[in-house]
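>> received
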Amino acid sequence: FGAHLVGQPSGTHSIMVSNNGDALLTLDCALGGGHLSSFGLISGPPGIAPGNTADISLSCTPLTAEPLSAFLSVTTNDTNEGLSNFNLACVGQPLPSLIFGTGFEQP
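>> returned
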């Protein structure tokens, strides 16, 4: 997701899932990990018809100024690949500081 100011969303990033089988592929998506609250699962289809693809959409909105990590866990009814985990990372950057003066400072 890259680096983003604290409280500012990253925009949407997607993971494409394909169903190369001959039956409906069911999906159950869940987020986990240490910085779970900074990541969002925007959309994930409950199933994908044979021969089709679908996107799982995610975002990161850093809540703290530090490297952040979590994971996406996708459980399916595929007997060969029933569980897949994807590592997620973004970096929270501090908001810029503003310094105000009285307007009477000497140069």
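>> The longest strand covers residues 83-93.
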